[in-house]
Amino acid sequence: xxxxxxxxxxxxxxxxVTSFSVRAQDYRDLPPRxxxxxxxxxxxxxGSGKTVLPCEYEELLTYNDMAYPEGYIIAKRNGLCGxxxxxxRPILPYRYDARPKPIANSGGLFVVCGDDRxxxxxxxxxxxxxxxxxxxxxxxxxxxxxxxxxxxxxIYSVEKTTNNGETSSNRTKRKQILSGLLxxxxxxxLAPVYKNLFCGDNAIIVTDTxxxxxxxxxxGEWIRPISPLYTYDNYYDDFYVSIKERRTRLExxxxxxxxxxxxxxxxxxxxxxxxxGLIEAKDRSGLWGLMDTHFRVLIPHRYTExxxxxxxxxxxxxxxxxxxxxxxxxxxxxxxxxMDTTIHFDxxxxxxxYPLVYVDSAWRLVDPMxxxxxxxxxxxxxxxxxxxMSVATDSLHHGIVDLWGNVxxxxxxxxxxxxxxxxxxxxxxxxxxxxxxxxxxKLLSCWGAHREENVLYVANKKGMWxxxxxxxxxxxxxxxxxxxxxxxxxxxTCWAVYDTNNRLGYVNARGREIxxxxxxxxxxxxxxxxxxxxxxxxxxxxxxxxxxLPNGRSSRPxxxx
Length: 561
What we know:
- The protein is mostly beta strands.
- It has one helix and 49 strands.
- The longest helix has 28 residues, at about 1-30.
- The chain is flat and about 70 Å long.
- The relative contact order is 0.05.
């Protein structure tokens, strides 16, 4: 009997460990969910093209990342919203006028805030956990709450009437919105007396009604009390908070216990998000240097400008501008690997990534051994790949080369770009797109292509999209109207267009139809924050479109474009 119980205990422990492991990795293992459009309603398919939800919903919104490892789907049907799990099974019934929003790492709690701006919290059974009486109730911040060791918090607002002025003769009344914090049981963590609360990865920046600032932890305890002497900024990606002296405008850094770990003696201190663990700092003389998170000096303060150039292998490179205007390329050990290099900037004022350099009015490639290769190009970039370069000799001859200058895709296209190291998209003069793998083997031809994470979208001549295998080129689904970028903030640019009946539709950046002109503008789902009102080089076929102008009017419809 004891042996039997021991075996059961071991099995229980193994199951517990396995269950925990699965829960911890669910958000990585969950298959993609792709939003598709058909007959004016939305549905979902997975990355293999299999239907998860039929096109029967007025709205669908997915949540799936580290903060939402369970994978939630917010659905709207017959004008009411509910919640489904990642496989489309119901969690909350369709009873809410506003979209429920899952609370990160809360074990199945949802914030619901209606049109009246008053919100509450419900659990996965639909029971009310926090009453619906708080103004502008929402989850506080967007970060991994597990790092703090504290449960998530909720921010809410109250409208208070305050006095403005010091003396009774000039005192006036005005309304002011003030913020406070609740825990997930509705208990008050911070009273609603603060003008602003800014949530970072490891602390809360608190601003009072006098615009003075302090720093709190997630239990509401002071790390640095409110003071008129300093301002703070919590943008240091989970390790430090910036502190700035109001009088001198000099900066330093504090740790999560409030101690100053980098003295307040720098004109500017900034982290490098693309090179985590490195900090650039400008000293009192206006010169930049580089240090690590333990404040060891990697590159001394000798540059008027210092910026990361990206990755080459496992090493990071920077370009530094000397006082006399000369440019040096430096690694993180402070070694100068190239000198007198003319750095070229693109239209967004971002430097092209090393090993591409612009010298003598042409682009040249520096191979991994530091040798300047003889080939000269009129255009070159490697934004999306660490091993492949998009190059061109003129506007009609674009192709792809590798780090050693070897031609991977011939220079015979009007456009060619590497999406990572394994997918290449090249556009022919006819408008067709050819898709290659990272070694230059052709996978397929189509009329539009877009890669989102591990999913490859391809379009037919009608502008409808399907899913294809990015390794073999095999099409995995039938053609739908797909909202590209549904699982990412980097959605493909699209434009609103109208037919002669003033019905709304969408076309992509190439002018190809994503959604036909079948929508009533009042019911249209706005996915992209910005609309572009004028576009070129579009091929809309026989549809008649008018442009929506910034003043709200539509221009005269045009056949084609």
